[in-house]
Amino acid sequence: MAVIKLQRPKLNFGEKIYFGALIKGFFLTMTHAVKSLRGKSAGADSLASSGLGVTMQFPEQRWDEHLPEYYRGAPTLVTDEQGRERCVSCQLCEFICPPKAIKITPGEIPSDDPWAKVEKRPKEFDIDMIRCIYCGMCEEVCPEQAIFLRKDYLITGLKRADMVHDKDKLYQIGGVRTGLVNKWNELK
Amino acid sequence: MPDLIQIAIILVKIVALTFLVVLPLVPISVYFERRFSAVIQDRVGPNRVGIPLSLFGFKKDFHFFGLIQPMADGLKLFLKEDFTPAHVRKTFYWLAPVLTVAPALITVCVIPFGSPITIFGHTEKLVIADLDIGPLFVFAVSSLTVYGITLAGWSSNSKFPFIGGVRSTAQMISYEIALGLSIIPVLMFFGELNLGKIVQYQADNGWLLLPLWKNGHFSLPDPQTALFWIPAAISFVIFTISIFAETNRMPFDLPECETELVGGYHTEYSSMKFALFFMGEYAAMVIGSALIVTLFLGGWSVGFTADKWIQGLHIGGFHFGGLIHLTAFVGKLVVFILFFILVRWTVPRFRYDQLMKLGWVIFFEAALINVFLAALILAAPHLTIAILGIGTVLLVVVTAAVIWVAKVSEESPKILRA
User: Fold this and answer.
1) For FRET with B225, which of B83, B95, B106, B133 sits at 20 to 30 Å CA-CA?
2) How much is the pLDDT for B415?
């Protein structure tokens, strides 16, 4: 076990007096203060600051247009071009979901339905947004590309019940996704 | 009947100066602390709390740049559970917060807030108690704060507060010496312990650190006053830094240093009792800066020969110049509080041995030498050249000796075994 003996740096007189360092410090902090008041802090532009420091002031200003392509917001269900629910209620997402936020009640598609060939779709599809950790595993595991993490991040509610996204809500946020796998589409 | 009027006037002064001038400065300095530190760190700080008009159906909230924030904080502290741990010594535990706030507020009474106001031919000084022992009274009373902190540390009956309390006691007692010694040159210069008269003198003859006018006219200071600027400046530095240590402000806030002592002496306190400690700290800061401003920076004086004119202003028999001076005083106070805050967010915390060394080895000696230097300068016109020469030589020798001792004491002890 090597012991490294550190030599304390030898300070010269000016450093021992300490006032120089104090004044340097005042200049440093005051420069920061003045720059931050003028909205010219380092990184103020790239962080889209509100003009005071580097902070973006939330309800008035939003980060939305700066969100990266890979941003993981609320998980949602999507429909395809023909308005068919893509979900076939295989329940893989329910099983993979680490915090067990997803609850699916599978249902049968009646034989007179144009999509009767698909056989199943969810009767109920609830995602408890209090539990959801936005990990994106549901999106990754879905064989039908039916569940996606969208960029919505303001999930709020006044009651616990408000925080459970049911099927309607999920489709409403999710909307239509085109250009995905089309194995159920006989026209293609 | 005149007695009753006298008492009524004193009561009005107490209420107005303590509760309308000094106490509001406490939340204001808390607000400044938060906003200024935020600006230094490129943040925004509290800027939202205001009047929530949108609750009553209006379109927009009214926020005074978050100036209401300290009130919201105070309300929060009021509504918190006032929890008394089972293991504390109740009497002292309850006494301690009061003992930290009360002395700070009592010292307000000798601070002159402005020049006298005249109403209906009756002149009234803007000071609660026009004592002839101003600074001594302040030191005597404000040193009682140490009891509050020590009792808080001890009565909490738990280790971190105890260490905090002990640290605070040692620190405050050490720096009281430097504090007291450092203003002796100032008091010698004024030949006066009445703060009101000290400020009046500075208004007429230039502030202690800015002696640029004399008897109400601009003029360069005479050689003696100019020379006295040196000990005055040394006094100012020592006094200011000692005030920092006395008020447990940042470079010296070891009694409550979070990284080592959780919360320091107020770890076991909650709710309004904690708020009282908080308030006492800031009140001490306000009083400390008031004392510095009064002694060194001309107190309520606006300066630059404008004071006589301001004192002469009147509407009929109402000489309101004192109110302008009050505003000037509060302005200076706020500027000095901002300086306190700037120091807090600039200078890192000292180690405890560094703190003690600064107090005992450097400031104590420097203040003592400063007293002799000031005495020599003040007595110079009355001394013969020979005595003056001897005095100067002695002073140089003593200074050199003290510096040598300080240097020797700094050498690390020799290691006895290999």
Assistant:
1) B133
2) 66
